[in-house]
Amino acid sequence: MVLSFETRIKQIAPISVEEFMTLTVEHYYATRDPFGADGDFTTAPEISQIFGELIGAWAANEWSTLGRPNPFIMLECGPGRGTLMADALRATKNVAGFHTAMRVALMETSPVLKARQKEALAAYHPVWIENLSDSILQSSNTPIILLANEFLDALPIRQFQKSPEGWKERTIEINDKGNLAFRFVPHKEKETIIEDSPARENFVKDVCTLLKKNNGAALFIDYGHTEGGTGDTLQAVKNHRFVPVLENVGEADLTSHVDFAALRRVVEAENVHCRAIVTQEAFLHELGIEHRTATLMKNATAQQQQDIQTALHRLTSTEEMGKLFKVMVIDYVPHR
Ligand code: SAH
To answer: For residue 273, how far is its CA from the centre of ligand 1 (angstroms)?
Structure first.
């Protein structure tokens, strides 16, 4: 008999939030393509081709700053359907020397999404890697340009809850009714949960180590905060709606907000350069999203113009992705 994912979680409960998130995220992505209107959520590259195109322009600029290395590795972590990379590479095909110099590498765990990436990026002959220890990255000093959009949010967090005896790691157990439930910690203060993420910090630290060895730059885009906050940010999304995190276990997208202040501290401790962490709105504005939009509008039908405007609004407005999403760029460039 094949046990449901939820039954398997119940068998191993009590379980920390960190372990719960690791197992749930792995199961969720391994068993579906979650993107788009018929799926659970939509990411920036799936909203508009402009997003990936501007990131292509960003990458070309970084490559130039690095001294136009040949070869260099264009690496994406958690590439989803491969849309961002496809748009970025289409936008850079006229950048002299860029495509001949680049080797495309994708870090992905989901077999379903690997298949989508294979279709979307066949022309570029990508290689797939499991993690940053892969010999493609480690056995050479090839400079790296790394992209990660909505990747860090999927890496697990720990939660700690204030109890009368001090901070305790938050766990999930089975309650009297046989359902999964957070272990109850009695406490009178309202804000009693704090989070950290060794998985995210270790990942960013490994990126720093790699950049110091190979040179390069990395771009991280995600929802989160730049000033460390307290509180519970664990969230689950199904069919484009927030759902309770302990229902639909393994069938909803489970993430949390990224603490960019914590990641900046990791980068600086590694002596890697961390540029200002800015909002997605500011980043896309800097890359000229308004100009690109205007150009696309010129040759568009009325319906297409409407769609382009809607996409621009979703990507940049304060009430949509513009402010909640943050952009962190780190780099390690020779002779600087
Ligand atoms: N960047 C894409 C997809 C974001 S969803 C976009 O913007 O559309 C998160 C992606 O990270 C998925 O491709 C998922 O399968 C992948 N992923 C999640 N955990 C991972 C891990 N530990 N290692 C590698 N990839 C992971």
So the answer is: 25
